[in-house]
Amino acid sequence: MIVVTGATGALNGATVEHLLKRVPAHRVGVSVRDVDRARHLADRGVRVRQGTYDDPAALRDSFAGAEQVLLVSSSDLGADVVAQHRRAIEAAVEAGAERILYTSAQGAASDGPYPPLAIHAATEAILADSGVAWTALRNGFFGDLNQLLGPWRRTGVMAHPADGPVAWIDRADAAEAAAIILTGDRPFDGPVPLTPTDAVTIDDFAAIASELTGRTIRRVVVDDEQWIADQVANGTPEHAARFTLTMFRATRTGYFARVDPLLAELLGREPRSAAEQLSDHIAA
């Protein structure tokens, strides 16, 4: 059995859908906060049990019988996320899981320039000390392009701080790769890089947007502090804006520029490009 946490979320929810194309439903279990939201999975034969990273007993029950457990990184911004991950890992070990997989991130490091990287690094260290086989799925950046690129369709401008190349992955590709790894015969031990084969900058996105829309979309570089002031004026809390700025600053050093061919190898095709992802965003 393969048990997946966060199965009502975007990433691991998509992973479960890919698993169901590769293995019988009775071999898939999910651990979710709200079992009602996973009713569509239960109706298809998936084992649905309630579990949260703050309830070790519930986690052990939801992981029972699992050969592999896939843990999604916590999105609880108000929690001690590393402690949550430790509880989940310990519960998986106590439940008898033979391998634990975790949705980590490219560049995970305790001294990385982007704060979430330290959480991923700490979690990987806990996995390494767990006593069972483990895999860290180090996904490239993914997320809401509207949030990243701003209101460019209205303004015709992508106005952001100076940046550098980023290995921007399609979340759907990350989910499919996770399912392939979970159901394949090839062992993946430790960190596994899952990135597209090209890294892109905001300049690249502006050029792609211009081609897709037939309009000239300009890339404007904004001074860091001016960008912070603009974000705050538009209603973003200053601490949130400064957090985002750390990502831009990290990209300037090439920290997220590294790409790897493994994702394409796993998928049997080229990962979806930034142009394809932006085209979807425009059509949505």
Which residues form runs of ≥5 with pLDDT under 50?
A: none
Radius of gyration: 20 Å
Shape: globular
Helix content: 40-55%
- The H-and-E topology, N to C, reads as EHEHEHEHEHEHHEHEHEHHHH
By DSSP (H or I, 4+ residues per run), the number of helices equals 13
Structural class: alpha/beta
Strand content: 15-25%
Strand order of the largest sheet: 3-2-1-4-5-6-8
End-to-end separation in angstroms reads: 36 Å
Report the sheet with the most strands, covering strand number, pairing sense and barrel closure: 7 strands, parallel
Mean pLDDT: 95
Q: What is the count of β-strands?
A: 9
Task: Describe the protein's architecture and organization.
It is a single chain. The protein has helices spanning 10-22, 39-42, 56-63, 81-94, 116-128, 145-149, 152-155, 171-183, 202-213, 224-233, 238-252, 262-267, 274-283, and strands at 2-5, 28-32, 47-50, 68-71, 99-105, 133-139, 157-160, 190-194, 218-221. It has 284 residues and is α/β, with parallel strands linked by helices. A 7-stranded parallel sheet has the order 3-2-1-4-5-6-8, sandwiched between helices. A two-stranded parallel ribbon has the order 7-9. Helix 1 (10-22) links the parallel strand 1 (2-5) and strand 2. The two termini are 36 Å apart.
